[in-house]
Write a structure and sequence with these properties.
2 domains, 12 helices, about 80% helix, Tetracycline Repressor, domain 2, mainly alpha, Arc Repressor Mutant, subunit A
Length: about 200
């Protein structure tokens, strides 16, 4: 008897969540398909029912993680623009986020991305553009979006870079200082846009 569409979607999501978790912590090259399927509690056959290659899985896992990431969840709350942005900045540049709770693929895969195939980098670029577009909408309010786009791109890079550097450091005090400095700069940038 064939599996139901709901079961197939559940299996696919298990593979995507497992793949992203493993890729985010160990990088693309160190992860095998066997590791992904074992971590998901599924078979290699289940993998090939959904994906044709490891590269396709990587692209789709990034998209899955971006859709379910903390930054997107914060943006979807639709509070007042500046209130929501401050809340999102605080959450994104937090120890909880550094500790891998709903990690953002943009920050957690940034060091892995430079060595990937063009199709994978294109997916990463698309996710970055989507985040900056959403930030632009939230920052812009009544201002023209073209005027705000550079600030949104810089804010996205500051957030992503802050988390990437924070994860790389082995000194907790220094990590906290870097994260705090990024929070201050991010909030200051929002105040400059409002002026």
């Amino acid at each position: 008897m064939p599996y139901s569409p709901a079961h197939k979607e559940q299996s696919r999501n298990k593979l995507l969540a497992s793949a992203f978790e493993l890729f985010a912590h160990q990088g693309y090259d160190k992860i095998t398909l066997n590791a992904v399927t074992e971590h998901a509690g599924l078979t290699r056959g289940a993998f090939y029912n959904h994906f044709s290659s490891k590269q396709e899985l990587y692209r789709e896992a990034m998209k899955f993680a971006a859709t379910n990431s903390q930054i997107v969840a914060q943006m979807e709350k639709r509070k007042n623009g500046s209130e929501m942005l401050i809340s999102m900045i605080e959450g994104y540049l937090s120890q909880q986020h550094l500790s891998n709770t709903q990690p953002c693929p943009l920050a957690f895969l940034v060091t892995d991305m430079a060595n990937q195939e063009p199709e994978v980098r294109a997916s990463y670029t698309h996710i970055f553009e989507n985040i900056t577009h959403r930030l632009t909408q939230l920052i812009s309010g009544n201002q023209r979006k073209r005027k705000v786009m550079p600030e949104a791109q810089a804010l996205a890079a500051l957030l992503i870079g802050g988390v990437a550097v924070g994860r790389a450091l082995d000194n907790e005090d220094l990590t906290n200082q870097v994260m705090n400095a990024c929070r201050i700069l991010a909030k200051d940038s929002l105040e400059r846009v409002d002026d």
